[in-house]
Specification:
alpha+beta
Length: 96
Amino acid sequence: MSVKVNYTKQVREYCDRHSNSIIDIFIVRNSIFKDIPYKTLRKIFNRFEDEGIVHTVSKGLYCVGSKTVNKKIISQYTSSDGGMIVGYGLFNSISY
């Protein structure tokens, strides 16, 4: 008995459940989508971007739904001493 897995449907349902959130493809490929080959997962996200379901924030980092989540991204990656703001983000946050 073989089970046909529809990878696109699986990823689409995940995106539907996590609207207005950030998806780090490097994290979800090793946890949620272990059974999907990495290249296939990237192709699915590229198609979803063409459809407007997700938007690329950075390499391997996608936003589901809206394009404007800069504060959400910054807080997710800088909270709990997990990172820091550099470049234009740091420059623009400094007030004189």
